[in-house]
Amino acid sequence: MLDTMGTVRMVGEALGNGQSVKVVNQHLCSVNLAAAAEALALAESLGLDKAAVLDLVGGGSGGSWMLSDRGPRMLMGTDAPVTSAIAIFVKDSGLVSSAAASCGADVPLLEVAKTRFNAAADAGLTLRDDSRVIETYRKQQS
Length: 142
Fold this sequence. Notes:
The protein is mostly helical and 142 residues long. The protein is built from seven helices and no strands.
């Protein structure tokens, strides 16, 4: 059964290194998701067609997996189906922040993303799709 779920990878010799790699992954996911939301909100503020911007930059040097995956749902607005809730990123960005603090790592971009996820949760979006973090940018622009 485990073979069908994935591949076992050894990361160094210390117990817990795999968990640390997961923390690094969640750091990147959090920052990339917040950056995608910010970029599409900027496009909106500039009066650009957000779908066209997503299409143009998604495959370029500024693109990311999170932009390509979450961007279309950001364009859907409140009708976005929940595939990953804001609550997950509140939890994960908190875990990343704690891990960084415990080893003395400076993660200012993560802290900005964490603030956005917490703001989305505070706005009642905890169980909504994580793409709706874009709403924290739209509210500031209003």
